[in-house]
Amino acid sequence: MKQAKIIVIIPAFNEAKSISQVIGDIPKGLVHEVVVVNNASTDETEQNAKAAGATVLTETQRGYGFACLCGLAYADSKNPDIVVFLDGDYSDFPNEMDRLVAPILANEVDLVIGSRTTGEREPGAMLPQALLGNWLACSLMWLFWKGEFTDLGPFRAIRYSSLRSLNMRDQTYGWTIEMQIKALKQKLRYTEVPTSYRKRIGVSKITGTVSGTFKAGYKILWTIFRYALAS
């Protein structure tokens, strides 16, 4: 049987202290290529990612969605079977990647979300505002689309053809929720798997600051209601 081509996309903004560990913990032989999108970093993220064996792209427009879209444009030239998204801060456990891709490889689903809320979580790894935001967003996805999600976790795997069908657009904090909403609206097959979670290396650019928390929360809610009103 032909091995599935899996590409990992890691958006990274100033993750020089953690990016090598993230890349190093990805299961050997599982993926075809690891792509780090250096999102306007001012530290040694690019150099460290290259030294760890990743392909490094540059996206000068700062924003999580901008970085993901840059990685996706690169993936288009590679025509993979599965794309995995993973953060560069070492809060997720890259060695659990095989459990994310397994349901897609078995042709059971098209999208798999790594759920931090149902997995083993280091105390303090998810701040109260993150837990509240996840609960509210998932509750609204159930209310509007009967979506059975427990998390907006960034560690996720999706069939490449399904990802392209979603026509992803968000350039900042709404990327993860946009993907889940569009998957529900297109009736993609999806599931969650419990994934482990630990305190990240460094300070979170979102929940680690008041402004980041507010901006992310506003964008997520705005995205939900925009799609709900358009339904």
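[next item in queue]
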Amino acid sequence: MYDQISSNKHRTWILLGAFLVLLWGLAFLIGKAVGQPGILFFIGVFSIGYALISYFVGDKMALAVNGCKQIEKKDDPRLWRTIENLSITDGLPMPKVYIMQDPSPNAFATGRDPNHSAVCATTGLLQIMDDTELQGVIAHELGHVKNLDIRVNTLAFALVGVISMIADFFLRFAFWGGEDNDNKQLAVLALVAAIIAPIAASLLQLAISRRREYLADATGALTTRYPDGLASALSKIEQTGSALRKQNTSTAHMFFANPLKGHGITNLFSTHPPIEARIKALREMKL
């Protein structure tokens, strides 16, 4: 179990390193081709500023767009006690508790740090999970809070934004004013990079999201000391389906299981690992 946690953290940093290499390479090529590196700097500053705004208000936006309703202990004592007990076990402050009216079994956590965190469960999750399975799901979500996954995902989104904006700038420049470039080969290379880089950046971001799901699984299993509870919850979700009635791609990566319809085409473009792979990893864990 500890090996899985360490491995997932290590792979996340490798993916973030690849992100930075991709960003630097794209900026270098386009800066050379355009000869105006100052514009790229301002685009980067704007994108990072936008990411910081999202970082501080993203939790409120995620809760609002998914129609989550904040509750108190008297509204759902079972969910409240489960979150409270596991928070104490993890040494975390008690997060705000929300419920989302949706028959699909799912949940998500948000918040920029443990002191500003929230956990939301769907009504479908509360209906079909027994206490051990619910503990596994909530421990997974608190694992995201404990591992500061919101910060990691915000950084990944910021890098995607920077890369996409730089690429978009160069494509517009090439279309409107790039005909007089003296180095045609460099200009073509930069043009190809501007087309491919945003796609590569999105794939890296999705890979990071999947890696953090494995990490949260391992962290949650370590908290409960019972990986089978989480594995059983995943098995139920695999049978019933996790797609929400209200689809929202901007928050899909936050959920316990993929909340989008039609996500089985390829794992490469999914925000979550295959459920069967997550179950397999949990079954193989040893305390």
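[queue empty]
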